[in-house]
Amino acid sequence: GDLAVGLPGANGGTGKVTVVNGRPGGWPAPNLGEMEPLTANSPSFLGGSGDRLGTVIQAAGDVHSDGLDDLLVGDPDNNRGMLILGNATNFAFEQSFDQPANSRIQLITQGSGESLSSLSATGLAGVGDVTNDGAADMLVTVSTTNGSRVYLLPGDTPIFGNQGLDTLSAAYLDTASTNVSVAGVGDVNND
User: Fold this and answer.
1) Residues facing residue 97 across a β-bridge
2) How many CB atoms lie within 10 A of CB 108?
3) Contact, 44 vs 94, CB < 8 A?
4) Most buried of 53, 114, 151, 161 (most Cβ within 10 A)?
5) What are phi and psi of 12, to 5 degrees?
6) How crowded is residue 102: how many other Cβ atoms within 10 Å of its Cβ?
7) How far apart are CA 26 and CA 35, in angstroms?
8) How many other C-beta atoms are found inside a 10 Å radius of the C-beta of residue 113?
């Protein structure tokens, strides 16, 4: 498997998300002073000035049923989230998060009074295949004027570019609470 490392203080506060690809056999136990940095030549995404990108990252699972896992990255300072699609040919080293790319889908709010500016790591989750269509689904929490709204975004939806959460969602839950945590829990009722 692979892993992602969020580094919100990197690059003078722009922040950075680094994707570290696993490798067969793993990493051998090194001799002292001969350790290989995990982030050396790894694909990464950089935030803009003061964004602190990397405070919110979650595994999404295989959202597009292409055999590759995807990554959810929150960017609360810019009131958005990003779905980064898995890529067998690898991503570029230190690419800008704002740079247009076929491998990223920007998730934005369109509902009146909704915001992703308070998004935290517990408000974003890959939840497995909740809709039973063979693709991983996601939960995204937004703050509203009356509390919070949690959107269920189904996987395998042909989405590209900027996408409104209310347009993409299969369902939502409104709550007066402003401190909402979401998570995938598997199939607890064996259906």
Assistant:
1) none
2) 17
3) yes
4) 53
5) 70, 25
6) 9
7) 13
8) 11
